[in-house]
Amino acid sequence: MSDSTAPWQDRSHDVRDVDALRGLYGWPGETSTSKESDHIHPLYRPYIEAAPFAVLATRGPHGLDTSPRGDRPGFVQVADAHTLLLPDRRGNNRIDSLRNVLHDPAVALLFLIPGVGEALRVNGLARISSAPTLLQRFEVDGKLPRSVLVIEVKLVFFQCARAIKRSGLWDATVQIDRSRLPSPGLILQTLSGSIDGQAYDAALQERQQQTLY
Protein backbone atom coordinates (compact mmCIF):
# COMPACT_ATOMS: atom_id res chain seq x y z
CA MET A 1 0.00 0.00 0.00
CA SER A 2 1.42 3.37 -1.00
CA ASP A 3 1.43 6.32 1.37
CA SER A 4 -1.31 7.93 -0.71
CA THR A 5 -3.70 4.96 -0.46
CA ALA A 6 -6.42 5.23 2.15
CA PRO A 7 -6.42 2.28 4.63
CA TRP A 8 -9.88 1.13 3.55
CA GLN A 9 -8.68 0.86 -0.04
CA ASP A 10 -5.96 -1.64 0.90
CA ARG A 11 -7.28 -5.13 0.04
CA SER A 12 -4.13 -7.04 0.94
CA HIS A 13 -5.48 -7.83 4.42
CA ASP A 14 -9.07 -8.66 3.41
CA VAL A 15 -10.49 -11.72 5.14
CA ARG A 16 -11.68 -14.10 2.43
CA ASP A 17 -12.66 -17.39 4.12
CA VAL A 18 -14.00 -18.83 7.34
CA ASP A 19 -10.63 -20.22 8.42
CA ALA A 20 -9.17 -16.72 8.29
CA LEU A 21 -12.12 -15.43 10.31
CA ARG A 22 -11.58 -18.12 12.95
CA GLY A 23 -7.94 -17.14 13.07
CA LEU A 24 -9.02 -13.63 14.03
CA TYR A 25 -11.88 -14.44 16.38
CA GLY A 26 -11.45 -18.00 17.65
CA TRP A 27 -14.50 -20.04 18.59
CA PRO A 28 -17.58 -18.93 20.53
CA GLY A 29 -17.91 -20.05 24.13
CA GLU A 30 -20.69 -22.22 25.48
CA THR A 31 -22.73 -19.22 26.63
CA SER A 32 -22.81 -17.92 23.05
CA THR A 33 -24.28 -21.12 21.61
CA SER A 34 -26.30 -22.72 24.39
CA LYS A 35 -28.76 -19.79 24.40
CA GLU A 36 -30.16 -20.75 20.99
CA SER A 37 -33.69 -22.11 20.67
CA ASP A 38 -35.67 -23.28 17.64
CA HIS A 39 -38.90 -21.89 19.11
CA ILE A 40 -40.21 -19.13 21.34
CA HIS A 41 -39.03 -20.50 24.66
CA PRO A 42 -41.11 -19.42 27.70
CA LEU A 43 -38.08 -17.42 28.89
CA TYR A 44 -37.88 -15.55 25.57
CA ARG A 45 -41.58 -14.81 25.21
CA PRO A 46 -41.54 -11.95 27.79
CA TYR A 47 -38.93 -10.12 25.73
CA ILE A 48 -41.20 -10.09 22.69
CA GLU A 49 -44.22 -9.08 24.74
CA ALA A 50 -42.32 -6.19 26.36
CA ALA A 51 -40.74 -4.84 23.17
CA PRO A 52 -42.24 -1.70 21.59
CA PHE A 53 -39.69 -1.69 18.77
CA ALA A 54 -38.09 -4.14 16.36
CA VAL A 55 -35.96 -4.02 13.25
CA LEU A 56 -37.13 -6.26 10.40
CA ALA A 57 -34.48 -7.53 7.98
CA THR A 58 -35.42 -8.96 4.57
CA ARG A 59 -33.69 -9.94 1.35
CA GLY A 60 -34.91 -9.15 -2.14
CA PRO A 61 -33.75 -9.19 -5.75
CA HIS A 62 -31.91 -5.89 -5.24
CA GLY A 63 -30.21 -6.87 -1.99
CA LEU A 64 -30.85 -6.52 1.72
CA ASP A 65 -33.19 -4.18 3.56
CA THR A 66 -33.90 -3.27 7.17
CA SER A 67 -37.05 -1.54 8.32
CA PRO A 68 -38.14 -0.21 11.74
CA ARG A 69 -41.31 -1.59 13.27
CA GLY A 70 -42.84 -0.11 16.40
CA ASP A 71 -46.04 0.15 18.42
CA ARG A 72 -47.26 -0.47 21.92
CA PRO A 73 -45.36 -3.21 23.78
CA GLY A 74 -46.38 -6.61 22.53
CA PHE A 75 -47.32 -5.34 19.07
CA VAL A 76 -45.68 -8.48 17.70
CA GLN A 77 -47.89 -11.29 18.96
CA VAL A 78 -46.81 -14.79 19.87
CA ALA A 79 -49.43 -17.01 18.21
CA ASP A 80 -47.72 -20.17 19.45
CA ALA A 81 -44.22 -21.40 20.23
CA HIS A 82 -43.31 -21.48 16.55
CA THR A 83 -45.28 -18.54 15.14
CA LEU A 84 -45.08 -14.75 15.40
CA LEU A 85 -47.60 -12.28 13.99
CA LEU A 86 -46.35 -8.86 12.88
CA PRO A 87 -48.96 -6.32 11.68
CA ASP A 88 -47.90 -3.95 8.93
CA ARG A 89 -49.02 -0.55 10.18
CA ARG A 90 -49.44 2.57 8.10
CA GLY A 91 -46.23 3.78 6.49
CA ASN A 92 -44.88 5.23 3.29
CA ASN A 93 -46.29 2.56 0.93
CA ARG A 94 -42.83 1.71 -0.41
CA ILE A 95 -43.53 -1.89 0.73
CA ASP A 96 -39.83 -2.71 0.41
CA SER A 97 -39.97 -5.41 3.10
CA LEU A 98 -43.15 -6.98 1.78
CA ARG A 99 -41.88 -7.10 -1.79
CA ASN A 100 -38.74 -8.77 -0.49
CA VAL A 101 -40.75 -11.39 1.39
CA LEU A 102 -42.53 -12.29 -1.84
CA HIS A 103 -39.11 -12.87 -3.37
CA ASP A 104 -37.48 -14.59 -0.38
CA PRO A 105 -39.41 -15.56 2.78
CA ALA A 106 -36.32 -15.49 5.02
CA VAL A 107 -36.58 -12.71 7.63
CA ALA A 108 -34.84 -11.64 10.81
CA LEU A 109 -36.11 -9.54 13.71
CA LEU A 110 -34.14 -7.64 16.33
CA PHE A 111 -36.28 -6.70 19.34
CA LEU A 112 -35.27 -3.74 21.52
CA ILE A 113 -36.71 -2.86 24.94
CA PRO A 114 -36.07 0.61 26.41
CA GLY A 115 -33.82 0.37 29.45
CA VAL A 116 -32.81 -3.24 28.77
CA GLY A 117 -29.34 -3.98 27.46
CA GLU A 118 -30.06 -7.39 25.97
CA ALA A 119 -31.80 -7.59 22.59
CA LEU A 120 -33.66 -10.57 21.19
CA ARG A 121 -32.91 -11.99 17.75
CA VAL A 122 -35.39 -14.09 15.81
CA ASN A 123 -34.83 -15.73 12.41
CA GLY A 124 -37.60 -17.33 10.44
CA LEU A 125 -39.70 -17.61 7.30
CA ALA A 126 -42.52 -15.17 6.60
CA ARG A 127 -45.66 -15.04 4.51
CA ILE A 128 -48.03 -12.13 3.99
CA SER A 129 -51.65 -12.58 5.05
CA SER A 130 -54.64 -10.30 4.49
CA ALA A 131 -57.13 -12.65 6.18
CA PRO A 132 -59.92 -10.44 7.63
CA THR A 133 -60.03 -12.26 10.97
CA LEU A 134 -56.28 -11.87 11.34
CA LEU A 135 -56.39 -8.15 10.50
CA GLN A 136 -59.17 -7.63 13.05
CA ARG A 137 -56.93 -9.10 15.71
CA PHE A 138 -54.73 -6.01 15.36
CA GLU A 139 -57.42 -3.33 15.19
CA VAL A 140 -56.46 -0.03 16.87
CA ASP A 141 -58.91 2.86 17.13
CA GLY A 142 -61.10 1.22 14.51
CA LYS A 143 -58.24 0.93 12.03
CA LEU A 144 -56.79 -2.27 10.65
CA PRO A 145 -53.33 -3.04 9.27
CA ARG A 146 -53.18 -3.70 5.53
CA SER A 147 -51.55 -7.07 6.12
CA VAL A 148 -49.90 -9.26 8.74
CA LEU A 149 -46.61 -11.11 8.47
CA VAL A 150 -47.00 -14.67 9.72
CA ILE A 151 -43.49 -15.71 10.73
CA GLU A 152 -42.47 -19.33 11.19
CA VAL A 153 -39.78 -19.19 13.85
CA LYS A 154 -36.55 -21.06 13.15
CA LEU A 155 -34.02 -19.60 15.59
CA VAL A 156 -34.21 -17.42 18.71
CA PHE A 157 -31.50 -16.16 21.02
CA PHE A 158 -30.62 -13.10 23.07
CA GLN A 159 -27.87 -10.67 22.12
CA CYS A 160 -25.62 -9.55 24.96
CA ALA A 161 -25.71 -5.94 26.16
CA ARG A 162 -22.24 -4.84 25.00
CA ALA A 163 -23.45 -2.90 21.94
CA ILE A 164 -26.17 -1.11 23.92
CA LYS A 165 -23.69 -0.25 26.67
CA ARG A 166 -21.07 1.02 24.23
CA SER A 167 -23.63 3.16 22.41
CA GLY A 168 -25.30 4.52 25.54
CA LEU A 169 -28.56 4.05 23.66
CA TRP A 170 -30.84 4.26 26.70
CA ASP A 171 -28.78 6.96 28.46
CA ALA A 172 -30.84 10.16 28.39
CA THR A 173 -27.75 12.27 29.09
CA VAL A 174 -26.29 11.50 25.65
CA GLN A 175 -29.42 12.24 23.63
CA ILE A 176 -28.79 14.93 21.03
CA ASP A 177 -30.91 17.89 20.02
CA ARG A 178 -32.87 17.07 16.86
CA SER A 179 -31.89 20.43 15.38
CA ARG A 180 -28.28 19.24 15.07
CA LEU A 181 -29.26 17.00 12.16
CA PRO A 182 -30.72 17.89 8.76
CA SER A 183 -34.52 17.86 8.91
CA PRO A 184 -36.67 15.54 6.76
CA GLY A 185 -37.96 18.58 4.89
CA LEU A 186 -34.47 19.81 4.06
CA ILE A 187 -33.45 16.37 2.82
CA LEU A 188 -36.57 16.04 0.67
CA GLN A 189 -36.22 19.54 -0.77
CA THR A 190 -32.55 19.02 -1.60
CA LEU A 191 -32.90 15.60 -3.17
CA SER A 192 -36.20 16.18 -4.97
CA GLY A 193 -35.67 19.76 -6.12
CA SER A 194 -39.42 20.31 -5.95
CA ILE A 195 -40.72 19.66 -2.42
CA ASP A 196 -41.17 22.67 -0.13
CA GLY A 197 -39.03 21.52 2.80
CA GLN A 198 -40.09 24.24 5.22
CA ALA A 199 -43.78 23.49 4.69
CA TYR A 200 -43.13 19.78 4.99
CA ASP A 201 -41.36 20.19 8.33
CA ALA A 202 -44.03 22.55 9.65
CA ALA A 203 -46.79 19.99 9.08
CA LEU A 204 -44.78 16.85 9.85
CA GLN A 205 -45.52 16.24 13.53
CA GLU A 206 -49.28 16.75 13.26
CA ARG A 207 -49.46 14.71 10.06
CA GLN A 208 -47.60 11.79 11.62
CA GLN A 209 -49.75 11.91 14.75
CA GLN A 210 -52.93 11.85 12.66
CA THR A 211 -51.73 8.93 10.52
CA LEU A 212 -50.12 6.56 13.02
CA TYR A 213 -52.62 3.86 12.16
Descriptive overview:
This protein has helices at 18-25, 30-33, 45-50, 96-103, 132-136, 162-167, 184-192, 197-210; strands spanning 53-60, 63-70, 77-80, 83-88, 106-112, 119-129, 147-159. Helix 7 (184-192) packs across helix 8 (197-210). A seven-stranded antiparallel β-sheet has the order 2-1-5-6-7-4-3. With 213 residues, it is of the alpha+beta class. It has two domains: 25-167, Electron Transport, Fmn-binding Protein, Chain A (Pnp Oxidase, Chain A), CATH 2.30.110.10; 176-210, no CATH class. It is globular and about 55 Å long. The chain contains eight helices and seven strands, in the order H-H-H-E-E-E-E-H-E-E-H-E-H-H-H.
Helices and strands, with pairings:
Layout: H1 18-25, H2 30-33, H3 45-50, E1 53-60, E2 63-70, E3 77-80, E4 83-88, H4 96-103, E5 106-112, E6 119-129, H5 132-136, E7 147-159, H6 162-167, H7 184-192, H8 197-210
Antiparallel strand pairs: 1-2, 1-5, 3-4, 4-7, 5-6, 6-7
Helix pairs in contact: 7-8
Protein name: Pyridoxamine 5'-phosphate oxidase family protein
Pfam families: PNPOx_N
Domain Pyridoxamine 5'-phosphate oxidase N-terminal: 43-160
